[in-house]
Amino acid sequence: QYLERFYRVVSKRIGEMLVCEVSDVSSVRKYEQSKREFVDNASHELKTPISVLRGIVETLLEEEEDQRKRHFLEKALRRVEQMQNLVEDLLTLTKLESGRERLNLSEFKLRELVEEVYDSLEQEFVKKEVSFENLVSEDFKMFADRQKLFLLLRNLMDNAVKYNKRGGKVWVRAKKEGNKQILEVEDTGIGIPPEHVPFIFERFYRVDKGRSREMGGTGLGLSIVKHIVFLHGGEIMVHSEPGEGSRFSIVIPMYN
Ligand code: ADP
């Protein structure tokens, strides 16, 4: 009888603790969700004024002949572009973090996708005189969400050129091991000091804030990459040598 009472008291207590814990978890979740909604709403509100502002600066720049004024307008345009990139990245990230994003899986030629990403970044490669080699074979078929993989590769290749040296190199490779599809983006850039590597996938984490901003970085690229990989049930590995370069390896399982 004594044991039975003891058992009842203990299980009631555990029950109370569990209810407490569950309501704690759900209030944390609600808080996270309202934070996400706030960022999402604020980014949407900023989208239109920023693109109007961009239009105005571009028109003024087209008509301006005075070198001094052109210099300031060019500076303003770069800042506006930076704001636009930030808003775009914030919208992408909040969508990926919401847990409501679904994968649209299909089979496609990876080499063609890499070419498309390169075309969208060609100006950056040319400006920095960085050469690019697409080492993905013509018949390599990738099974994944093509649109999200575009975003993933664009962020990794953008970093590979942004943090490269003038005249450096970037390669993209792919291979299959069992049911794993492995993509690699490698560069001959400045590298990442080992103590920073564990944090680079966190939002707004930058090894060198000044350099990232100067390059037009938002600090969100690798967070976006991480979410896309996890959504595919995959993993990321980073191998980097300061002063030598970096290699980002993405493993995506094949489900079919
Ligand atoms: P950012 O917009 O600043 O590039 P990311 O999230 O894409 O933000 O990257 C986070 C940080 O990781 C960068 O600021 C940079 O310091 C470092 N990083 C990312 N990719 C590379 C790379 N390929 N080579 C050297 N450093 C890199």
Automatic annotation (TrEMBL):
Residues 41-256 form the Histidine kinase domain. It is found in: Cell membrane; Membrane raft. It catalyses: ATP + protein L-histidine = ADP + protein N-phospho-L-histidine. It comes from the Bacteria. Keywords: ATP-binding, Cell membrane, Kinase, Membrane, Nucleotide-binding, Phosphoprotein, Transferase, Two-component regulatory system. GO terms for cellular component: membrane raft; plasma membrane. Its EC number is 2.7.13.3. It is a multi-pass membrane protein. GO terms for molecular function: ATP binding; phosphoprotein phosphatase activity; phosphorelay sensor kinase activity. GO terms for biological process: cellular response to phosphate starvation. It is an enzyme of class 2 (transferase). This is histidine kinase. It comes from Thermocrinis ruber. The chain holds residues 71 to 326 of 326 of the full protein.
